[in-house]
């Protein structure tokens, strides 16, 4: 637009706002435009012009939304980019034409603490945010996000099959720790926080949730083989899946309980009449696994609870109590 044309429109708006009218016209405007704070002509006309622009912008943006409602894919993006660039440019020009309106009428509203009144360009941006963006976000979720998440889920499902075929469970889990984290870091800057959370949840479900049965079996093997150092990374991964850690704790508790039962059974012939041997055997079992949990799992409190529960079970019901035919035998020997 030529500078002279822009100047001309600016002058027209100035003339409109400063044009004196008959007293009857002023009274009529005062009755219909209740938002005015002052009774002078320019203020009434300023309000009238401001709200005409406001209504026009709202209706204009609603029409844009209708036109773009059924678009998808790249056509959707091109449509909104094109309209945004035009709308922003037009809003900047309109704001220049309305310099007098901004400088006087809008400023008066600021000074009077009237809420919801902004300079024309700021008002235009707010309407784009309020009217257009919610619909655009819904369309993006429908046409982009859902398909993107489905594609990512299928990709990692195939990756999981390949990794499991060429690695042990622990080797697979080591790969799982590294592989998705790299990918997530790459896409994080271009994803909304809600989309990123959905992405992470989907990846974790495919790579960890779908492998839980194999992980549980491997946990039992590691406990039997006393490969305790491999357990923390396994627990850390599984802890990302809601409620999945409960089963691992159950496996640890059952292992400790069974070890207690087996150990007491081996000494039961002597321990039934030897309180010292019985007590030392129980204390040795607890000390052994307490040390494991303390060193390997950094004294994880919930696992200490699992340990105490398991110890309580085999103390109250073991080969010694069965041989004595009395569940109170343990308290007698421990006393």
TrEMBL record:
List the molecular function annotations (GO) for this entry: ubiquitin protein ligase binding
Query: Which residue numbers delimit the Cullin N-terminal domain?
Result: 42-140, 142-335
Q: Which GO BP annotation is one of this protein's?
A: ubiquitin-dependent protein catabolic process
Q: Which UniProt keywords apply?
A: Ubl conjugation pathway
As for family, the record states:
Belongs to the cullin family.
Q: Which PANTHER family match?
A: CULLIN (PTHR11932)
**Name the record gives this protein:** Cullin N-terminal domain-containing protein
